[in-house]
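for the recovery benchmark. tokens below, seq after
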């Protein structure tokens, strides 16, 4: 095994307690914890929006609404599953069981210093960028040598079809910005209402991201939890899935990613829709078309871990992650 810049043994207890024995069958020992400041901001947002009752349902943390479901869908996803999305992203990025092998190092090297320009699709309430930036902020707060407090600018370009989701993301970024800044991370969020099924809309979003990729700016794509929609059938009984309809738009995105040799972290749950339908098609119909960006793993490994619930006192649930990490081939 090659040496890692950031070893699993260096993950602080505030994010991962490897000694936690919970005795739950089907889950390895250990427990993840979202960064405390992220938990606090999320609880505050839930209180401010009067969503305490809906958010108290801990049995529903690990799924996702399928598509764009208006204001009600946005609010429901935020109340019930935002923490599940963040947990999945933290599990994939910290990779405490060393399942994905390359993602922990990517976190340390991408988010060290300088300027990162991140295309976050679909933005939802911002779980992708929020979870990654908050984990880095926590590692900086812990004084981890591989996460020095150097100036880091993260420019997030987020696209989502549901404007109510975008508003929730803007709220979370506003709430977390002071803490991120304390840790030397300056974050800017630009958003666009975007439809992954429309070529023109995708071209506008990609243009917005590409326009900021100047000089030494590091290009990153974070794709999270799109399989609930894109892995689903277009019509009951029909083998065609929504990703087949979105193929040309996704190719458009990754054509620019390949040209710019962007790093991609694509993170999904571990259900059939993600691992048997969406991720294999994403690999074959989109990623395999490009030779300048390549996956670090030919399979879709899965990782599972218990995580503390930020809303229910003493509560915990299972976070499950699969995904694809794309890097430049040279
Ligand atoms: C499960 S949520 C994931 C959100 C976020 N990435 C996360 O991890 O929490 C799926 C998102 O896909 C968005 N979406 C659904 N249909 C879409 C479309 N045609 N184009 C772009 N986004 C879409 C929804 O509005 C929703 O925010």
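predicted aa per position
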């Amino acid at each position: 095994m090659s040496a890692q810049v950031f070893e699993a043994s260096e993950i602080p207890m505030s994010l991962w307690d490897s000694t936690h024995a919970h005795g739950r069958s089907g889950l390895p020992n250990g427990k993840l914890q979202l960064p405390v400041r992220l938990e606090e901001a999320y609880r505050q947002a839930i209180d401010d929006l009067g969503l305490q009752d809906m958010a108290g349902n801990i049995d529903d943390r690990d799924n996702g609404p399928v598509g764009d479901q208006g204001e009600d869908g946005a609010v429901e996803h935020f109340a019930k599953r935002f923490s599940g999305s963040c947990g999945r992203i933290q599990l994939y990025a910290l990779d405490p069981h060393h399942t994905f092998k390359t993602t922990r190092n990517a976190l340390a090297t991408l988010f060290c210093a300088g300027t990162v320009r991140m295309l976050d699709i679909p933005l939802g309430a911002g779980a992708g960028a929020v979870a990654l930036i908050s984990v880095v902020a926590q590692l900086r707060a812990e004084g981890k040598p591989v996460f020095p407090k150097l100036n880091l600018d993260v420019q997030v370009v987020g696209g989502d079809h549901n404007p109510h989701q975008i508003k929730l993301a803007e709220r979370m970024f506003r709430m977390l910005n002071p803490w991120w800044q304390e840790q030397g991370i300056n974050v800017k969020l630009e958003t666009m209402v975007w439809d992954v099924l429309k070529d023109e809309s995708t071209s506008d979003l990609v243009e917005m991201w590409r326009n900021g990729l100047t000089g030494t700016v590091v290009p990153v794509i974070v794709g999270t939890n799109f399989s609930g929609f894109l892995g689903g059938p277009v019509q009951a009984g029909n083998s065609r899935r929504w990703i087949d309809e979105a193929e040309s738009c996704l190719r458009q995105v990754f054509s620019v990613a390949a040209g710019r040799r962007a790093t991609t972290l694509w993170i999904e749950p571990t259900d059939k829709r993600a691992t048997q339908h969406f991720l294999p098609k994403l690999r074959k119909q989109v990623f395999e078309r490009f030779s300048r960006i390549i996956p670090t793993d030919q399979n879709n490994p899965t990782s599972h871990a218990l995580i503390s619930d930020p809303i229910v006192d003493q509560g915990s649930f299972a976070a499950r992650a699969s995904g694809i990490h794309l890097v430049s081939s040279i």
